[in-house]
Write a structure and sequence with these properties.
The protein is α+β, with helices and mostly antiparallel strands. It contains two helices and five strands; from the N terminus they run E-E-E-E-E-H-H. Strand 4 (37-39) and strand 5 form a beta hairpin. It starts with a strand and ends with a helix. It binds zinc ion (ZN).
């Protein structure tokens, strides 16, 4: 059985710090012992080593602004995404304006062709009539 140490000894990054649920003694054990049953060095009861996480108070004491910085990074990432989406939206809008202009130009071309066809049809009709008169 792996033995925990009392937390007065040196604590390494690979250690888990936890309290005995019976006598509340602060204990230290290597992370590898997470989830294992061990015997409390103080009261001798069999206790379970918590699941591999360092107690939050230790992590916060080490870096109280870590969470704030993490949130700031999230916000910055979100802002970056928003800027990219805005840029994409701008491109889509510009593309749409361009296509609408092309569409309008196409419409004008088709209208011009239709007018020309009407003129040709009229001219053919005139020719037909002139030929009819000759007979
Ligand atoms: Zn104990």
């Amino acid at each position: 059985m792996v033995e925990p140490r009392q937390s007065v000894s040196e604590i390494k990054d690979s250690d888990i710090v936890f309290r005995c649920p019976y006598c509340t003694k602060s204990l230290v054990i290597d992370r590898k012992a997470a989830g294992l049953s061990v015997r409390c060095t103080d009261c001798g009861k069999t206790i379970q080593v918590p699941g591999g996480e360092r107690p939050p108070e230790r992590r916060e004491a080490k870096d109280p602004y870590a969470r704030v910085r993490e949130l700031e990074r999230s916000v910055e990432t979100a802002r970056g995404k928003i800027r990219r989406y805005e840029a994409e939206l701008g491109e889509v809008h510009a593309r749409r304006v361009h296509l609408e202009k092309e569409h309008a130009a196409d419409l004008r071309t088709f209208e011009a062709i239709a007018r020309n066809l009407e003129t040709i049809k009229q001219a053919l009709q005139n020719i037909t009539e002139a030929l009819d008169k000759r007979e």
